[in-house]
Each structure stands twice: as structure tokens, then as C-alpha cells.
Design a protein that fits this description.
CATH class: Mainly Alpha
Number of domains: 1
Helix content: over 70%
Structural class: mainly alpha
CATH superfamily: Ferritin, core subunit, four-helix bundle
Radius of gyration: 19 Å
Number of helices: 6
Distance between the termini: 59 Å
CATH architecture: Up-down Bundle
Shape: elongated
Number of strands: 0
Largest sheet: none
Length: 188
């Protein structure tokens, strides 16, 4: 097995950059970049609403931290566009629009000031994170195959931050909010 893995890794490294001048793949990469650019910019508008709707200070702080991180992600995407000699351009991300609309519905359908609302906000936020994790993971792979080393590094850093945010949200939910939300039904 070890021999197979090292052979596979060598094959992958030999292929790195093999997609350069592949206009279909480059176009797809650029379209994916436009999509996540729209998604991240959309989040900079959505996250403040989620923070305002959150009940606990811990969740509000986590959302505020993610907003600052999201603004950095927007800048990084702009940097990648610049490296490619392209103007930063957004293309509506239907997936992110749907996920954030679902988050808005959760806020509307849960009681203000409740832990249940925070549970819903966390779940909606984690859906956002999982979409971003999938997208940045794909962008890392595509940047590697296209030989865009600087973009690979940028997207790898962003991917790790998205994973950390997801883990942080899980910790918040599991260490306090989920348990307190469960108790809300018995206090009536």
C-alpha cells in the first residue's frame, strides 16, 4: 500500500500544472471564482443580520469574527483575480442565496431571545461553512492542476479558516446552546 500511495502522490505532483492553457478548465475555474466571490460578498451583508438575531454573546462574537474573516476572504479572491489578470467579478451564487434565505426563515420562525433560535442560526451558519469548505477545497485542487501556486496557497489558507469556523460553531452548540435549547420546552 505504501508504494501505491507514493506512486500516486508522484503522479499527482507530475500532473500539477498540467491543466495550464486548458481553456475549458480555466473558464470553469474563473466561473467558480466568480461564484464564491458573490457568495462571500453576500455573506458580508447577511452575517450582521444573523449577529443581531443571535441570543448569546458567544454566538454573536463568533459571527462577528467570521464577518471579519469573510471580508478578508473577499480581498483574497480579488487578489486571485488580479493574479490572473482579470477584473474581480461576481456571478450570483444560487446555492448561497438559498442557504442564507433558509437562515432568514429560521430567524423568522423561532422565538426572539431563545436558545432554539441560536441552534437554528448555528445550523444555518454551518450549512454556509460546509458549502464554503466544498468550494474552497475544489478551488485548491483546480489551482494546483492549473499551476496557480499562489492561488493554491491563498485558497488553502481560506479553506483551513472555514474548517476552523465550522469546528468553533460545533463547540458553541455542543457545549452550551443545544442543551439550553432542549430545556426551553420544559420551562413553559
Amino acid at each position: 500500500m505504501t508504494t501505491t500511495r507514493s506512486t500516486t502522490n508522484k503522479q499527482v505532483s507530475k500532473k500539477a500544472g498540467a491543466g495550464q492553457n486548458n481553456t475549458q478548465l480555466e473558464k470553469y475555474f474563473e466561473d467558480a471564482l466568480k461564484d464564491i466571490y458573490w457568495a462571500e460578498k453576500h455573506l458580508t451583508k447577511t452575517l450582521p443580520k444573523m449577529k443581531k438575531a443571535a441570543t448569546t454573546e458567544e454566538l454573536q462574537t463568533a459571527i462577528e469574527e467570521h464577518l471579519a474573516q469573510t471580508e478578508e476572504h473577499v480581498s483574497r479572491i480579488e487578489e486571485v483575480f488580479e493574479m490572473m489578470g482579470k477584473k474581480a467579478q461576481a456571478k450570483k451564487c444560487e446555492a448561497m442565496e438559498g442557504i442564507t434565505k433558509e437562515g432568514e426563515t429560521i430567524v423568522e420562525e423561532t422565538q426572539d431571545g431563545s436558545m432554539t433560535r441560536d441552534v437554528g442560526i448555528i445550523m444555518a451558519a454551518q450549512k454556509v461553512e460546509h458549502y464554503e469548505i466544498a468550494t474552497y477545497g475544489g478551488l485548491v485542487s483546480l489551482a494546483q492542476i492549473l499551476g496557480l501556486d499562489a492561488a493554491t496557497d491563498i485558497f488553502s489558507k481560506t479553506l483551513e479558516e472555514e474548517k476552523q469556523t465550522d469546528h468553533h460553531l460545533t463547540d458553541i452548540a455542543e457545549n452550551k446552546i443545544n442543551w439550553e435549547a432542549e430545556q426551553e420546552g420544559t420551562e413553559a
